[in-house]
Amino acid sequence: MAALHQFKLKSLHWVGSLMAVSYNCFDFLGFQEALKKMRDVDDKIIYALNALPTESFKGQINSGSTCKDLYAKLEQSHTTRHAAITNCITLSATQLKALREQHDAQPNDVETDQKFKAEQRKLRVLQAELNVEDIIKERSYKAFNERCRTFFRTELSHSQT
Family, per the entry (predicted)? Predict the structure, then answer.
């Protein structure tokens, strides 16, 4: 159980202009707030893509470079969030296993039962966050490919065209 506590607080460091976000898997509301901050790149992708020049202003800004930078930020953001969520799922599953053992040893202990059920709910919500991530990722890459496909090609855009 000692290994469980060494991962309690984890810092994430963003590349470039993205901010560092800390999260604590045992503070679920705090973790959700950290995820919200980490999703900032995805939330603002439409604004970033709308800043790309149209054909008539193409020579003023290097759209390929802008798309490449945005793609790198998206990739980093998705990778980091996925790692954060799976880390918390692992920690929650470990905590749940320990609580299950306590619950099995003392089946009439109301406090252990409540903690066990709360941890089960938390684990389910964390697992659902992975599904949310898939939806966010799909939406972001769809918008990215619609706007950047003529300026920047990725393996992702090759598979979707």
Answer: Belongs to the MIX23 family.
